[in-house]
Fold these 2 entries.
Entry 1:
Amino acid sequence: MTIKGKAYIAGIYEHPTRHAPDKSTAQLHAEVAKGAIEDAGISKDDVDGYFCAGDAPGGAWPMVDYLGLNTKKLRHVDSTETGGCSYIIHLGHAAEAIAAGKCSIALITLAGKPRTGVMPPRAAGAEADFESAYGATTHNAYGMCAMRHMHDYGTTSEQLAWIKVAASHHAQYNPHAMLKDVVTVEDVLNSPMISDPLHRMDCCVVSDGGGALIVTTPEIAKSLKKPLVRLIGHGEAMKGPRGGKDLDLTYSAGVWSGPRAFEEAGITPKDIKYASIYDSFTITVLMQLEDLGFCKKGEGGKFVADGNLISGVGKLPFNTDGGGLCSNHPVNRGGMTKILEAVRQLRGEAHPKVQVPNCDLAIAHGTGGLLGVRHAASTAILERV
Amino acid sequence: MSETKKYPAPVTNPETAAFWDAAKEGKFMIKRCTACGEAHYFPRSICPFCYSDKTVWEEASGEGTIYTYSLMRKSPTGPYAIGYVTLKEGPSVQTNFVDCDLEKLKIDQKVKVVFKPTDGAPLPFFTVA
């Protein structure tokens, strides 16, 4: 049993806003749902599966009601919550549901307002009394990973900076990007230290906004007008300190989700033409590239240096929309935008300055939670048919 | 600044109450499984490695080395250093480093436990040994 080729991404939409003081979070969900439904060329009354995560106000049933989905037809819901990679996991789960005949047109939405609204608090886990007082935040949790990676492998701040430099080269062509200025390695190193060894420019933006996907059967996708993009491999995994035994913060759960996705797809990292890699921080990208097998563990610094991630310059064009580092990081969750730019690349709809020629195989990979504490990872491999 | 920082009192629960009772006596406890011999942290009733329920409390030395750290410079309560300490007994624990020069922390540096008061049971932190 496999989901390879069983589900197609027929509709995509990224909200153009990065700052939405005049909109509600539910409204942003509705606007991205409408955008993806119109992109696919279907009616909202055709949707029979709905997927959302912790950013959806009230969860699945209030959202289904608010969005006015057709409850006579809706027969599959999934509110899996794994932070930023929730939507990559949803994509896999939607494919599973479609392959099993549990739904035929799935809608996945993400939206929220970390800049202009209140973010819902994260529920406490069993570890709360033993960790919450120590103030783990995204910045310092990823800082701890970077610090140890530098210690074990000699990774440098200059190498990490190249990831931001590459993202900025792409963002200059994205009219919606929050940060459009091309930056240099020196700019990154001269930006203020936030949480050692991460500088401000090693960190992603904070943006309001959202995005949505329509996932459907091969038959329905072929009846619509968009270029055909299908899911051929998917993986998900989780990692944590697990009682504190053999702690190793230099790798992520991507070491498990990646190989699962590549095996299902029947391809290797060498076959990938474009990579969407979650870039909450520069170190996130570096570790995930290693974990996914684009280079050996510890050689990520060398791999990302000298523009190797810049479209048209390097060997692995990444995050050609500018990514979370420069364009958009709606609700502090990067998984959705990773899928969206991968689909644009496969459709040939990326900006001409960053479009990868003959882009037929792409990866969208992300993590959720805190890499330095406990997290999930998910990998999707997409193919243009 | 760490002296003036107010830390939240542990909520505690039946599974972990013994840890906090010991903390009031200045003792830093870990759990060890008598079936597989492995120590773990934070404490659980069921061993996370072999799933035996034969786990027992053990007073740890409170000594260890820094596995990693990050000095958080942007905080309304002032800079603080979060990190993991690998205890002599094996498990690595998340903590903050206190009562020492946070600019001079180093991976592999020796550290020891120190308790800080809350409105409830005291919380374990680590400082340079």
Note: The interface with chain A takes residues 7-8, 10-13, 16, 20, 38, 40-42, 44, 48-49, 67-75, 80, 82-84, 86-87, 90-96, 107, 118, 123 of chain B (CB under 8 Å).
Entry 2:
Amino acid sequence: MTPVISTLDKPLTATGANRQLSWLGRIDPRIRILCAAAFAVVVVACEDFAPLGLAVAISLFLLSASRLPARRTMMRVATMDSFILFILLLLPFTVPGEPIFTLWGFAASWEGLWQAIEIALKANAIVLALMALVSTMEPVTLGHALHALKVPEGLVHLLMFTVRYIDVLREEYLRLKQATKARGFRPGTNRHSYRTYGYLVGMMLVRSLERSERILGAMKCRGFTGRIPLLDRMAFGPSDVLFVTGFVLVLFAIGAMELAYGAY
Amino acid sequence: MHIVDGALSNPVVIAGAALTIGGLAQGLRKLPMEKIPVAGVLSATFFVASLIHVPVGPSSVHLIMNGLAGLVLGWAAFPALFVGLLLQAVFFGFGGLTVLGVNTLLIAGPSVLVGLLIRPRVQGAAPRPAAIWAAIAGGLAIALTTVFVALALAITGDEFLPAAKLVFFAHAPVMFVEAMLTGAAVYLAKQVKPELFDDFQGALQ
């Protein structure tokens, strides 16, 4: 299958073969998905800085083990942070408590600041762990692993089709964009620009539908009856057992720290 | 608008996840295996559309187009947009894992609502009235999304109330842009390929 989203530099192979660079990438995909989910649930439940600090440390460790390009990944996480920045910046001013300083007559409280830091730590720890554990997967493998985890077949196939065509349609978009550019279109804040973008999206939809008609025709030609068999077999090996044991221990450590420090 | 892990209270997160599972089940019921290729290609289209940045004054906004998704896909917009958000969370790090349910509900809920309300009016109409209905759908979907985001924040705690209000007003220009774009997109699609709105029938003779 084609590499998903071209903006990603991942160890993707054209054949979809499972060629992973790191030991973490060789752990059973099902295990990695479950671990990421369990990690997210445990971290969200924490409220104290000690367990959250440990969680961030674990995420950074996973990130280094995953051999994802560190800088690029950090940039992505920073982009996510920029989305929530204004909510976090508002929090110190809206949570009542002991004031730190006042800005234009609004008092910032320590409690609000702590809450903002807490949210930032949780969000970053979880996203980093998710990227380290799951985004290193070939998207097709993600689909197969989700299927093995009893996610409905329809949803898995929808996921795989979406992944397959994102790149194709992105190129379609770039072609249309180039066509507008060749005709002297310069985007601005005006009615003409919005109409042009609207037509562009509309044209993409029209071409997509026509493309999907051809796809379905080609699939029927090859005997598509409304079911696609998923052939991937996943094996649970000794290194997987080791990883799960270690990960569960770490989760218990985070939970124990939360109970020990968060109790007072 | 992506909500991240850790920001919302547990009841909000759990309710969001439960409602999203319900929406996915209903959406998949309306999506037999034969229609998956169409839905997948359209889902990829909306994923790519969400990467398009449109200038607004000195800044730019990225499109969401959940109104248009609802008009084209109906109930199937729910699984289609869920898949997009899942891919964004996993591969781009936008959003989060525990809030995936809430985020899906915030984007796909309005999409389906708009689809149910306005899609029948677009289906039979001539291009111009269809475009006007579509513009209403595009603006309404974003308005509902921001209201839902504001509600999710407000239910979580009073301390988020100012942020919730800010989210709503900051999205006023986005509402306008999405309304314009959705109207134009439907106007073109209605002229070039009217069967786009025919319950997928165009792709399934």
Note: The helical segments of chain A are 29-45, 49-66, 70-94, 110-133, 139-148, 153-182, 191-221, 238-262.
